[in-house]
Amino acid sequence: MSALPTETQVLITGAGPTGLVLGIALRQQGIECMIIDRLPSPLPWSRALGLHARTLEIFDALGVLGEVEERSLVQKGVNVHGEGGPLFRLDLTTLDAPFPWVLSCPQAAVEEVLAARFRELGGLVVRDCELLDLAQGTTGVEAKVRFAEREESVRSRFLIGCDGARSRVRELLGFGFEGARYPDHFLLADLDIHWDLDPESSHGFLLSAGALIALPMPEGWRLIINEPAEEELAPEPELEPFRRRLAQALGEVPPLGAPRWLSRFSVHRRLAEHYRRNRVLLAGDAAHIQSPLGAQGMNTGIGDAFNLGWKLALYLEGRGDGRLLDTYEQERRPVARRMLYSVDLLSRSTLARNRPFRYIRDTVLRFAGRRPETGRRLLRQASQLDVHYRATPFTGQGMGLSPRSPGPHPGDRMPDARLDAVGRDETVRLQQWLRRGRFCLVAQLGGEAREHTNVLSIHALANRLGQDFKGAVAMELVIAEQLPGDYRGLGEEDFPGVGIWRDLRGEFRARYGEHDQLWLMRPDGHLAWRGAPADADRLLEWLESWLRRR
Prior knowledge:
Number of domains: 3
Structural class: alpha/beta
Helix content: 25-40%
Mean pLDDT: 91
Largest sheet: 8 strands, mixed
Strand content: 25-35%
Number of strands: 29
CATH architecture of the largest domain: 3-Layer(bba) Sandwich
Low-confidence stretches: none
Number of helices: 13
């Protein structure tokens, strides 16, 4: 590229998974954006490897899941071993989700797929381009960059720092990045191993000398070990420490192939004090870093980008105000704080060498392994399916909602369910509506009322949405398998522009209850508002307060 564009709606710094996901989400809504990265080319290796169930839902919405799956290995289980034998096992396939497993896919491959999708949608990635400085005004941001050995200026409405742990954007904003460094140092090796361990599961060995983590990859295995900080280091990483740890874990050293990558690294736990200052925001590792145990870092960054993308798109289209953008930090920073706490607890227990503490840890793991409900809770937390925004301002509800009301509550992720079209041969998953990048009002007619009141309320609501929120809110009607006579014969001619679906398998009813309800699904799949059809005016008021045109 001989000339750098001087203007764009959104400038993203950092062409890693977080920046690329944000770029795709914006381009899907027609928002002009450009990604710059200081590196001349992508790195051929990476520490990030695992993609959890919630991230797979996001990738499905972005249109990249199939390509990622082709480059991945499906991981279906997690096995934890102590020095005395097995301690704990998680069966990932028991998750109640469309994709109940972890995909093992090196970050380099993930970035390649995401970059191709971004370019396919008309996005521009400019490499060997370094951010030097930025200045904010009332209408945008001016970024000073170094490109082709020259200093250039790029104007944008917003600038998003997805530029990693050493974020230049965070530095220029002056945001603190408080936290701590773990005392151990870590060694990583990607190589082939000839052994009998299940290739569809990850394995952790918690030993007195330290931990050994074995992660299956599309090609070979990844081994990670920790060693005391005071231990004398070899000038360059080597395989001998891995052989010693393997002998301690297995009683022998299996045949090891030549390493494709050997690395030594340290681990930090840090969280930015803020995620936004006016028109400049942070996401991904620029906002939070943590131990690689649990594979939460890349997944959390992708979640940041998916949360932010639709909010920026709506704002740039003239809907909502600064409160809408404020909800990004209000929602995602607490998620990162909870993630840092849980990963820190996992890391400290995994890396512990103190004998009494290891005894307590192993006892707790054996106890948890005998209780399926404990495993299910851990799975949902690790998969990020239980991330919610209940305590944030961007939630609403009608009258009569109680803690015992069936179905998700405002702020929760909306569970998936298969539905069948009325009048045509088509089956859809509720999660597929995320591909639109827009709000979706799911109107449920459960069939308990034998009058037309709810039907009329939903019909009037559909008309208002089409008039006042066209392009921002779509509507789908879900009707029970068996309906009273008053509901029979409903067709799409009764609700122009509204899809009508039957819950033939009862999956929607099992997850959302049987009563007539309105469920407003956000573009990221979380529930924004719920209530009865009689609360339609309250819903319209809520939408007007958040999505009114400026």
